[in-house]
């Protein structure tokens, strides 16, 4: 079993910055591709950014130039640095990971962290 725990959300003014972190814990696992997703009220969950184990990154158009995803394989962590935040970035942000375990490959989600950007 693997747990993903997000941290770093909060309330920030438009134009401000936040850094989200995701920490994975458990036994006998290897993290594959990880990603940050977000879901605003009344909207579908959407991919914000993803990063492979070898640090190849992809970004949603809305995140390009403002968000930076990174990871530390030794620490089993992933971060999302967000700058120039806009009110439309307000959402619950979720950590996602594809995890290799002894029994196979599974997808895990964190419980989410709230990001609120005030105008």
Series of secondary-structure elements, N-terminal to C-terminal: EEEEEEEEEEE
Shape: elongated
The low-pLDDT segments are none
Cα-to-Cα separation, first versus last residue: 40 Å
Structural class by helix and strand composition: mainly beta
| Strand fraction | over 45%
Radius of gyration: 14 Å
**Number of β-strand runs:** 11
Estimated helix fraction:
under 10%
Count of alpha and pi helical runs: 0
The biggest sheet, with number of strands, parallel, antiparallel or mixed sense and barrel status, is: 7 strands, mixed
Average pLDDT across residues?
Answer: 97
Describe the fold and architecture.
By secondary structure, the protein is an all-beta fold. 0% of the residues lie in helices and 61% in strands. It is built from no helices and eleven strands. The chain has strands at residues 2-7, 10-13, 18-26, 30-39, 46-51, 57-59, 67-72, 77-82, 91-101, 104-109, 113-118. Strands 2, 4, 5, 6, 9, 10 and 11 form a seven-stranded mixed β-sheet that branches. The protein has a four-stranded antiparallel β-sheet with strand order 1-3-8-7, with no helix packed on it. The model has no long low-confidence stretch (mean pLDDT 97).
């Amino acid at each position: 079993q693997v747990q993903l725990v997000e941290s770093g959300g909060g309330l920030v003014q438009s134009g401000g910055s936040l850094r989200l972190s995701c920490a994975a814990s458990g036994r006998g696992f290897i993290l594959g591709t990880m990603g940050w997703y977000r879901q605003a009220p009344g909207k579908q969950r959407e991919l914000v950014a993803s990063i492979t184990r070898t640090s190849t990154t992809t970004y949603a158009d809305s995140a390009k130039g403002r968000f930076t995803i990174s990871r530390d394989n030794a620490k089993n962590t992933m971060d999302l640095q967000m700058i120039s935040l806009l009110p439309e970035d307000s959402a619950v942000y979720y950590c996602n990971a594809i995890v290799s375990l002894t029994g196979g490959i599974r997808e895990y989600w964190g419980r989410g962290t709230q990001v609120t950007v005030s105008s």
